[in-house]
Amino acid sequence: MSHGNNAAEQVLRSSGVDVRKCMRCGKCTATCPAFDEMEYHPHQFVYMVEKGEIDKLAASPSIYKCLSCFACVERCPRGVEPAKLVEAVRLAVIRKQGMNHLATDAIPALLDEEMPQQALVSALRKYSK
Amino acid sequence: MQVNEYKPKIVAFCCNWCSYAGADGAGSARLAYPAEVKIIRVPCSCRVNPMFILRAFQRGADGVIIAGCHPGDCHYTSGNYFTRRRMALLFSMLDYLGIERERTRVEWISAAEGAKFSKTMSEFAATVASLGENKRLEDLRCKQ
Amino acid sequence: MQRIGVFVCHCGTNIAGTVDVVAVAKALGQEPGVVFSTEYQYMCSESGQQLMRAAIREHKLTGVVVCSCSPRMHEATFRKAAALEGVNPYMVEIANIREHVSWIHKDMAEATEKAVILGRAAIAKVHLNAPLQAGESPVTKRALVIGGGIAGIQTALDIAEAGFEVDIVEKSPTIGGKMAQLDKTFPTLDCAACILTPKMVDAAQNEKINIFAYSELESVKGYIGNFKAQIRRKARFVDETKCTGCGICTEKCPQKKVPNEFNMGLDNRRAIYIPFAQAVPKVATIDANYCTMMKTGKCGICSKVCGTGAIDYTQKDTVIEREYGAIVVATGFNPIDAKVYNEYGYMDSPDVVTSLELERLMNAAGPTNGTLLRPSDKTHPHTIVFVQCVGSRCDETDERGKPYCSKICCMYTAKHAMLIREKYPDTDVYVFYIDVRTPGKNFDEFYRRAVEQYGVHYIKGQVGKVVEQNGKLHVQASDLLANEQLHIDADLVVLATAIEPDKTARSLGTMLTASMDTNDFFTEAHPKLRPVESPTAGIFLSGVCQGPKDIPETVSQASACAAKVIGVLAKDKLTCNPCVAHSDELLCNGCSSCEKVCPYGAISYSDKEFRGPNRTTLIRRVASVNPAVCQGCGACTVACPSGAMDLKGFSNKQIMAEVDAICK
After folding, report:
1. Is A in contact with C (3 or more beta carbon pairs below 8 Å)?
2. Strand runs (DSSP E) across C395-549, as ranges?
3. For chain C, which residues score pLDDT lower than 50?
4. Are B114 and B102 in contact (CB under 8 A)?
5. Which of chain C's residues have a Cβ under 8 Å away from the Cβ of A31?
6. Which residues in chain A have Cβ-Cβ distances shorter than 8 Å to C463?
7. Do B39 and C633 lie within an 8 Å CB cutoff?
8. Distance CA A94, CA C333 (A)
9. Average pLDDT over chain B, rounded to an integer
10. pLDDT at position A2, please?
11. Which of B51, B77, B79 is the closest to C652 by Cβ?
């Protein structure tokens, strides 16, 4: 469990998420549009943060695959907000690396025409400090 | 811990039907609140005579809180409406006399709200503690 | 000077664990007027009471202070024990050192100090206590049951069985409630109508029971034993005494497009209707919102076809007044509106239904005559997905859902899944669950049968969204045990929506001054020991209005409730609360302030003769309190400008003595 685990405490603090509220219903994972892309799924994020397994999450590509669409946050009946945990882990990694996962300048080249505006905004939030 | 840590004296008037039961609920759920809060049971919040509050301040209480049923839920139909109006007047008068508004409070706490009871009392005790001792109305002759 | 005895209870370790009870007994023994002070393991036990009684005898005590649990718990116990030794029960005071001290504080020194202060306050109060005599009031030997569902019917039948009159007030045209809408009941799978309708008929035929269907409670006044209620009998526009329930009018009525609420709006009824074949009373009702005659004045077909001349378009609501000794709340529940769950597509596709709608779709008397057909195209569904906990078990911050478990959904979903698999073995049935909760006799066995014998697919996970695509319902869900996301093309999706108290409960609670919790369930007097009584005397709780329940539980609670009501009605007189207001006529200045604030009209004024100076006689207008009507709230005591009005048991002096003791 997360007692005394600094990394986990930092994630909990910066996300403001109370993982103990989770009742393991799995609605977050049921609703996730990026499920197939992700190694760890939203419900696993919640459980693994609770167990303090931040290293595994930090090393996983899942933190960049999350679309930040916040569907899991919107639908969670317990108000747990899994996407905020994903974001907090991502931020922790980016801060540690001291650099962005993707330079802001590199983003326009990756855009396609049909990409919704929200994806652009979330990309900036996701890949940079 | 300091030896002479300041502990305020707080009198809580709780109506028998809602807030006293709420306090019991807080107890059953083991939801702690500061020991400075001492409860006096009254049948209804409207039983609380402004005189009782003046008396408490005279005798050195640092804060007085009155807790009753939520508006509309009074066991006696309309008692808490009287409380609301009476206390609004009394508190503004006390304010005029220099007893800070934060030392007096009316709260609606139902029998099912043990958590709210504990939270309200903790907050109130902390607020009163931060104001320090009540000196304005205290009658030193009452001190032994 | 009083001779006071102090008794400090250990309550096992409940109090003694955090409060130094010996020190408390010793400290309180030093208080003026205290002639005896002791502590004991369990004061409420028989031997504890004996100890108290022996001390009263031995030390000639005139007052008693018990430092123990909440007075809401054992005040009556100790008062009774004192009374057995000839001490007036109102000379006993409780210092609550369990709920208000030992259970909330951890530090022993702090808790002990607080316990001593609370004990001192109680002693200070007892010094000023006076013996009080309780008055008596008569009991009206009739009960009112609000709500005619299975809870109300069962309570009414049991009360009538004991020989007392009962009135059932039901707002819809027939009694029967939600159970009448159900198809089968778990865990026995017997048909709901088969077991409910005989009870409805029993209620109708019982001469002690009056059914006021299509009626609503308008107001309630009074107190236990003496309630006065006004009941609005809504106009049916059909004379109940003449209508034979033949149903010809409901066949001939040309207005055919009225959503049928009994079938959850899945089909239509006429503007004049009888909700269902076994309705009680079996009387037609005209829905004035849809009736062409009522709206345009042109039609009148029902009136023409009626053989008994029962139709009366000019009928008006009537208000009747009845007196009762006790009131039973049995207002029941409704499923929450599934509209708010747009991720499940309830508003987008008619093939997303709630469980109660499915009951009607499977019921032989329902819109499809019991054949399970999709509402959209009337075809057999081959893949059915059940979603559990829709709106139940949500966080308190969740605006759409309820924080509690609705309790019945796990079982009725297992029932639905089982019935469907039995009737249509070619159907695939998936149930998405968070937890399967089946405590109850033969309940878990029932659920296991659904899995093992009927092959229902139970999947630990939730449905995230349902989208209608080419006549199918695309269900995206999670399977947590396999750590997979599932995509199922379903034909029918069934939502196990949470249940909530009926919308009328809140206003009824206010009318009866019966307390409710934040979810609008009625609060019981004690969650374990007095589960069918409201804290308000004379108000009793039956069925789901108190909390989610299935049918067996509702029926047992209904009977328990009836037993409590009979306990009241069987008495000829009730002891009144002696803690009532009284006016000191010498101080009263006749200002009427108290009369204006009294919510019960217990105060009246009269001219009285008083002796004046020099042998003259003065006539003054003074207040007097009717102790049988006064409920002892004390509003008048504060309103009185001259201090003439005081409350027995909670007098100004007593409360100020407590204030002084606490602030010392």
Report:
1. yes
2. 428-433, 457-460, 463-469, 472-479, 484-490, 492-497, 499-501, 539-541
3. none
4. no
5. 343, 464-465, 476
6. 27, 30
7. no
8. 52
9. 91
10. 43
11. B51
Both tokens assigned to C15: 């109090």
Q: Which domain holds residue A15?
A: 6-127
- Please list every residue in chain C whose beta carbon sits closer than 8 Å to the beta carbon of residue A28: 464, 478
The per-residue pLDDT for range C38-55, each reduced to its tens digit, is: 999 999 999 999 999 999
Please give the pLDDT value at position B144: 57
Question: Is C462 near chain A, with CB under 8 Å?
Answer: yes
C105 — contact with chain B (CB < 8 Å)?
A: yes
Per the CB < 8 Å rule, is A23 touching C478? no
- Kindly tell me if the per-residue pLDDT of B3 is higher than 50: no
Number of helices (H), then strands (E), belonging to chain C: the values are 17, 34
Domain that holds residue B60: 10-142
User: Touching check for C110 and chain A: CB below 8 Å?
Assistant: no
Q: Is C409 at the interface with chain A, CB within 8 A? A: no
**pLDDT-based confidence at B81, cuts 50/70/90?**
very high
Q: Does C632 touch chain B (CB under 8 A)?
A: yes
Our CA angle for B70, C531, C443, nearest 5°, is 120
Angle at C108 between CA C107 and CA C110, to 5 degrees: 70
| Structure tokens, C176 | 């029967």
How many structural domains does chain B have? 1
DSSP for B55-92, written as a single string: HHHHTT-SEEEEEEPPTT--TTSSHHHHHHHHHHHHHH
In the block, tokens 């006016």 appear at C583
Please tell me the total count of domains within chain A: 1
Nearest chain A Cα to C387, which residue?
A: A27
Contact C662 B40 (CB under 8 A): yes
Strand-pair partners of C385: C430, C493
Rg (CA), chain B: 15
Residue C101 is classified by DSSP as I
Q: Would A50 be classed as within a structural domain?
A: yes
Q: pTM here? A: 0.81
Q: Which residues of A41-63 are buried (b: 16+ CB within 10 A; e: fewer)?
A: bbbbbbbbbbebbbeebbebebb
Q: Residue C514's closest chain B neighbor by CA? A: B75
pLDDT category at A100 given cuts 50, 70, 90 is low
In chain C the domains, ranked by start, together with CATH numbers, are 4-128 (3.40.50), 142-233+319-332+502-569 (3.50.50.60), 248-305 (no CATH), 338-500 (3.50.50.60), 581-648 (3.30.70.3270)
A79/C397 Cβ within 8 A: yes
| Each residue's pLDDT tens digit, C319-374 | 999 999 999 999 999 999 999 999 999 999 999 999 999 999 999 999 999 999 99
Chains in contact with chain B (at least 3 beta-carbon pairs closer than 8 A): C
Provide, for chain B, the percentages of residues in helix, strand and coil under a 3-state DSSP scheme, each rounded to the nearest 5. Answer: 45, 15, 40
